[in-house]
Design brief:
The structure is a single chain. The protein is mainly α. It has one domain. The chain has five helices and no strands. Helix 1 runs antiparallel to helix 5, helix 3 packs parallel to helix 4 and helix 4 runs antiparallel to helix 5. The radius of gyration is 18 Å and the shape is elongated. The two termini are 25 Å apart.
Length: 156
């Protein structure tokens, strides 16, 4: 396998780990620990965390799309000859991207605005009712992607 193909697979894997690992950290570690803080401080903390993490997610998305299609073309010669497990990962990946884009441009934009306006009860509603469910879904989908990526080759 050519070195560029190996590099694409490595970048794809590391980038996926960083995205899903970041989601896990925020959702299962930071969020429960932050519950000890008063709502204004907790919500401001999340605004700062997401403001730093989300630009990385956009970079991860670019790398994942480029390396994914590179690998797809290099190993399988195009979309038509690709195994079903890779096609499933492709669909789930685009679903994750669409969910993140919606999260970023709609509820996160509202959340930031409410924090800046010091409307903490409204920001909490956005966080709990709009952002958290999407983050949980993307965490599940990201773990599912990892399972499919590591076991799909062995499916019947």
């Amino acid at each position: 396998m050519p070195i560029l193909d190996q590099l694409a697979i490595a970048l794809h894997t590391v980038t996926a780990i960083l995205w899903v690992g970041g989601i896990f950290l925020v959702f299962r570690v930071l969020r429960p620990a932050a519950l000890m803080l008063e709502p204004p401080l907790r919500l401001t903390l999340f605004k700062e965390v997401f403001s730093r993490f989300f630009p990385w997610v956009w970079l991860f998305i670019v790398v994942l799309v480029v390396t994914g299609y590179w690998d797809w073309s290099a190993r399988f010669g195009g979309l038509e000859a690709t195994p079903n497990y890779i096609q499933a990962m492709h669909l789930i990946g685009w679903l994750m991207i669409a969910l993140f884009a919606w999260l970023y441009f709609v509820p996160f934009a509202q959340f930031k605005r409410y924090i800046e306006e010091k409307k903490f009860p409204e920001a909490a509603v956005i966080m709990n009712n709009k952002m958290r469910p999407i983050i949980a879904i993307n965490l599940f989908l990201g773990v599912l992607e990892a399972v499919i990526g590591t076991t799909g080759l062995y499916w019947l």
